[in-house]
TrEMBL record, chain A:
<feature type="transmembrane region" description="Helical">
    <location>
        <begin position="388"/>
        <end position="406"/>
    </location>
</feature>
<feature type="transmembrane region" description="Helical">
    <location>
        <begin position="33"/>
        <end position="52"/>
    </location>
</feature>
<dbReference type="InterPro" id="IPR002823">
    <property type="entry name" value="DUF112_TM"/>
</dbReference>
<dbReference type="Pfam" id="PF01970">
    <property type="entry name" value="TctA"/>
</dbReference>
<feature type="transmembrane region" description="Helical">
    <location>
        <begin position="168"/>
        <end position="186"/>
    </location>
</feature>
<feature type="transmembrane region" description="Helical">
    <location>
        <begin position="468"/>
        <end position="484"/>
    </location>
</feature>
<feature type="transmembrane region" description="Helical">
    <location>
        <begin position="58"/>
        <end position="80"/>
    </location>
</feature>
UniProtKB/TrEMBL annotation, chain B:
<dbReference type="Pfam" id="PF03401">
    <property type="entry name" value="TctC"/>
</dbReference>
<keyword id="KW-0732">Signal</keyword>
<comment type="similarity">
    <text>Belongs to the UPF0065 (bug) family.</text>
</comment>
<dbReference type="InterPro" id="IPR005064">
    <property type="entry name" value="BUG"/>
</dbReference>
<feature type="signal peptide">
    <location>
        <begin position="1"/>
        <end position="22"/>
    </location>
</feature>
<dbReference type="InterPro" id="IPR042100">
    <property type="entry name" value="Bug_dom1"/>
</dbReference>
<protein>
    <submittedName>
        <fullName>Tripartite tricarboxylate transporter substrate binding protein</fullName>
    </submittedName>
</protein>
UniProtKB/TrEMBL annotation, chain C:
<dbReference type="InterPro" id="IPR009936">
    <property type="entry name" value="DUF1468"/>
</dbReference>
<feature type="domain" description="DUF1468">
    <location>
        <begin position="10"/>
        <end position="143"/>
    </location>
</feature>
<dbReference type="Pfam" id="PF07331">
    <property type="entry name" value="TctB"/>
</dbReference>
<keyword id="KW-0812">Transmembrane</keyword>
<feature type="transmembrane region" description="Helical">
    <location>
        <begin position="79"/>
        <end position="112"/>
    </location>
</feature>
<keyword id="KW-0472">Membrane</keyword>
<feature type="transmembrane region" description="Helical">
    <location>
        <begin position="118"/>
        <end position="142"/>
    </location>
</feature>
């Protein structure tokens, strides 16, 4: 194994592959940072260009885009409060708060280091125990997904720190929105009013763009006129301190491990992972009140959590030949076009490809860290751009992003509606991240509950006779309990 | 006044259309609407044929994913575009099923079909250690215990399963998953007993032996899995599968359709495309415009008997 | 009189009621057997929970109604912003991304009486750059208008 890995590293550093890898990571970061453009889109666009390439460079480039794309979303989330992907929405909570205080460089460096730690850990786990993890992941089915989603939904309570009721209200809005469209089990149209565009429901990307980017643009616009003479936030170029590093490392490592596990389960991706890790970090923290107010650990948990998925999602792809998410599905296509058979055979027949992929993932994470740290000076310039010119730029990029996800002006309309909704909610102190969380997790909870009931012919016994499902349900109960406890402590 | 304006607009539009059909077609980039998301099989076929055909047309073909409603959104969108040959659509089997179920407002008649590209049968798959070794084992079990055999369905409703159920008068417990990438792990993890997908969707599990194919739903055995007998060989007369082709809005001029048809013929004959399809275990099935139109008509009738 | 902490929960209460009425009118499933928890269960359950939360919030706001909020929900500028967004989207659907964005950006700068030419140059460069990046580099289609 070690020799394969070493020869893989030699390939990754060879002059033919390294530039491709750097190009891939950089391109991924740019795509990820632009709202609406996702890693999936980037990988799918590049796929036809890989047909003429050899297997290893082709896969290396696609994986570079993937790793960069997951990270890139956070830069925009921290600096502009406009997460580039749903996976980086959890980074807004603490990262943007830091940036507003003038600590943009600190937030960006924490994000880069945490992403690196998460990505590295998940790659190492992928290399070490992929087959074992895959066997574990196969035990997940409808009951487990339902329990996982239920646990995820309890996070709504913990991200709505000020007033839990208002957070829950936002959650119900999101859940209702998520039921629009053809019901996935029985194909009954729900709240579609005969409109074809509503048949598959609301896409999460336009909602994200509206709730975060457009509503932020509107409130900036308001501030612009309200008091013209606000000095731009003074910010230092200080990166993270040694103390920060000490504070964040345990959280980042734990989140990386959790992210890998979540990623290895087909159907649960970086967005869920980021929120789950954030919630877990808050639950165990001694100072849960700090979360949402610029906590180092909160940001690190979200960042390590979403990048931890990168290695995990390759587990089912490489060991079972089953794509864990949309990016993995494109990678599956790329492998097959190269004449390779993903699955157990791949390790036996083409170890050079497998270990080429593994080692280039290691290198890609290092490149990501490098770009992330050395780019900070450049990224911070974005804050210095006068607001008056930044606002229309955010608006135009948002519109392009909302359109590009499905080539639909209807989605642009959705983004604008949710932009107005997010703006109003902001004014009445209702948090908007529960809406996003509910739209991601609501369909997962509903369809899997109903699938499980079909599977068990109407019996609810799956809730207690499947150990993994039971574990998640206990976690959900525990999560609600500890949030209530924190709140009571606060009230006293 | 209003009518004058309208007729002027119509006349102008006709002139524009006439201009488009002139000999200089294609003079700009062409869009290909794919009604399914990036990363799926339809997307891959669309992107590859676009990539191969662009050399014969001398213009770029950019792929545009427009997803939703199991393909309905993208195909309806494609049907409503300007009929100038610059917007084409990947037409899938859903065009025959969805309109009859009231889930799509446009149907075959809203398109001029250009070429059928790909036709894949469904394969009946069980886990490697499953007690079922032939389709008749499965049917016997389903007859003994109606509604107990768990079927991982790739869509709701599932026409592969409905065809078998109707023919054999059996009932399985169909659990709807979101596509083959969810249905296959459900069988691998022994959460369900059986699934039906196309060979390309399960080729890696078939090659590695994680899944066992107990029958292929085509007329003849297929080259990618030559050891798997057809259902017909096993005495069960069910043939079903899925297909993908290319269409243009219904008013597209015939000369344009002809140019495009020729280009797609050439594209399907390229080594690049053939190799892509072979490696993905997908079957190229080239039907010309008339054959394709007739084919869809017959399939619509066949699906109609299941839907009713 | 119109306290935002009263108006918003009231509105959502009405939404929940409408949802419940709509749920009752869902079609019966045609092709697929369904679980004991059917297509109506989730929307109905969520609507009821939402209604309960709204009622609790209304009671809460009664007990602490003394805190009057002076600032308006929609300042004039925010309304302008909303109108701008909608106008921009409508413009795109007529003339396509490139022209609509150029027009909208320049109109925005004129509205704020910006005199520095550099801002206008940035605006034009930005729009053209995006247009080029998406269309020519990424091959991602940008919105086309019905006229152009």
């Amino acid at each position: 194994m070690l020799e394969h890995l070493l020869s893989g590293l030699a390939v990754a550093f060879s002059p033919a592959v390294l530039p491709i890898l750097i190009f891939g990571v950089l391109g991924g970061i740019i795509l990820g940072a632009l709202p609406g453009l996702t890693a999936t889109m980037g990988v799918a666009i590049l796929l036809p260009f890989t047909f003429g390439m050899e297997a290893t460079p082709a896969l290396v480039m696609l994986i570079g885009v993937y790793i960069g794309g997951i990270y890139g979303g956070s830069i925009a989330a921290i600096l502009l409060k406009t997460p580039g992907t749903p996976a980086s929405a959890a980074s807004v909570l603490d990262g943007h708060t830091m940036a507003v205080r003038g600590q943009a460089a600190r937030a960006l460096s924490i994000s880069a280091v945490a992403s690196f730690v998460g990505g590295l850990i998940s790659t190492i786990i992928l290399i070490a125990i992929a087959p074992m993890l895959a066997t574990f992941a196969l035990r997940f089915n409808a009951p487990e997904y339902f329990a996982l989603a239920l646990f995820g939904l309890t996070i709504i309570a913990s991200v709505s720190s000020k007033n839990i009721l208002k957070g829950l209200l936002a959650g119900t809005i999101g859940l209702l929105v998520s039921t629009v469209g053809l019901d996935p089990i029985s194909s009954v149209p729900r709240f579609t009013f005969g409109n074809m565009d509503l048949y598959s429901g609301f896409n999460v990307i336009p909602v994200l763009i509206g709730l975060f980017a457009l509503s932020e643009a509107l409130s900036q616009l308001e501030k612009l006129v309200g008091n013209k003479h606000t000095p731009p936030p003074k910010f230092d170029h200080k990166l993270l301190s040694k103390q920060d590093l000490k504070d964040m490392l345990p959280t980042a490592i734990k989140s990386g491990l959790m992210g890998t596990t979540i990623g290895s389960v087909p159907g649960a991706g970086a967005d869920i992972s980021a929120f789950v890790c954030y919630n877990e970090a808050k639950r165990v923290a001694e100072d849960p009140d700090e979360f949402g107010k610029g906590s180092v650990r909160g940001l690190a948990a979200a960042e390590a959590g979403n990048n931890g998925v990168t290695g995990g999602s390759l587990v089912p792809l490489l060991t079972l030949g089953v794509p864990g998410d949309a990016v993995a599905a494109v990678l599956l296509g790329a492998l097959i076009v190269q004449g390779l058979t993903p699955g157990p055979l791949l390790f036996a027949q083409n170890p050079e490809v497998v270990y080429g992929v593994f080692s280039s993932m290691l290198v890609a994470n290092v490149i990501m860290l490098g770009i992330g740290i050395f780019g900070i000076r450049f990224f911070c310039r974005i804050i210095e751009v006068p607001k008056i010119i930044m606002i229309p730029i955010i608006i135009f990029l948002s519109v392009v992003g909302a359109f590009a996800i499905n080539n639909s002006m209807f989605d642009v309309g959705i983004a604008i509606c949710f932009g107005l909704l997010g703006f109003v909610l902001n004014k009445i102190e209702v948090p908007s991240s529960p809406i996003l969380l509910a739209i991601i997790l609501g369909p997962m909870a509903e369809t899997n509950l109903r699938k499980a009931l079909l599977m068990y012919e109407g019996s609810w016994s799956f809730l207690y006779d499947r150990p993994i499902a039971l574990a998640f349900i206990c976690l959900a109960v525990f999560s609600v309990y500890s949030t209530l406890k924190i709140n009571r402590r606060k009230a006293q | 006044m209003n009518t004058i304006l309208k007729s002027m607009l119509v006349a102008g539009g006709m002139m524009l259309a006439a201009g488009a059909s002139a000999a200089d077609y294609p003079s700009k980039n062409i869009r290909l609407v794919v009604p399914f998301g990036a990363g799926g099989g339809t997307d891959a076929v669309g992107r590859t044929i676009a990539n191969s055909a662009k050399d014969f047309l001398g213009q770029n073909i950019s792929v545009m994913n427009r997803t939703g409603g199991a393909g309905a959104v993208g195909m309806s969108f494609g049907a409503q575009q300007r009929a100038d040959g610059y917007t084409l659509t990947v037409v899938t089997r859903e065009i025959a099923s969805l309109p009859q179920m009231g889930l799509m407002q446009h149907d075959q008649d809203d398109f001029k079909l250009i070429r059928l590209v790909n036709l894949d049968p469904a394969v009946v798959l069980v886990a490697a250690d499953s007690p079922y070794n032939t389709i008749n084992d499965l049917i016997a079990e389903a007859k003994a215990n109606p509604g107990k055999v768990k079927f991982a369905s790739t869509a709701a409703p599932n026409f592969y399963l409905m065809a078998l159920e109707k023919d054999q008068d059996i009932k399985l417990n169909a659990i709807p998953y979101n596509g083959a990438s969810e249905a296959i792990p459900a069988v691998l993890g022994n959460h369900t007993d059986v699934t039906m997908v196309t060979p390309g969707e399960a080729i890696s599990q078939l090659r590695s032996g994680q899944l066992k194919a107990i029958g292929v739903m085509s007329q003849e055995r297929i080259s990618y899995i030559p050891d798997v007998p057809t259902l017909t060989e096993q005495g069960v007369e069910v043939v079903t599968g899925t297909w993908r082709g290319i269409g243009a809005p219904k008013d597209t001029p015939d000369e344009v359709i002809e140019i495009l048809g020729k280009a797609f013929d050439d594209a399907m004959a390229t080594e690049e495309f053939k190799e892509f399809m072979a490696k993905g275990a997908m079957t190229i099935h080239n039907l010309n415009a008339e054959e394709f139109t007739q084919f869809v008509k017959e399939d619509t009738v066949a699906l109609g008997t299941l839907v009713k | 009189m119109f306290n935002r902490h009263v108006v918003f929960p009231t509105l959502l209460l009405i939404v929940s009621a409408v949802v419940l009425v709509l749920v009752a009118q869902f079609d019966a499933p045609m092709y697929q057997q369904d679980a004991s928890v059917d297509a109506k269960f989730f929307p109905a359950a969520i609507a009821i929970i939402q209604a309960i939360i709204c009622v609790v919030l209304l009671i809460q706001s009664k007990s602490q109604a003394a805190v009057a909020v002076k600032e308006k929900i929609f300042s004039k500028m925010a309304l302008m912003g909303a109108a701008y967004l909608i106008g921009y989207a409508i413009l795109i659907s007529f003339v396509g991304y490139l022209i609509a964005s150029l027009v909208a950006f320049v109109a925005y700068l004129l509205y704020f009486r910006i005199k520095k030419p550099s801002y206008y140059i940035v605006a034009v460069c930005f729009v053209v750059f995006i247009y080029y990046l998406f269309g020519q580099v990424f091959y991602i289609a940008l919105p086309e208008g019905s006229i152009f």
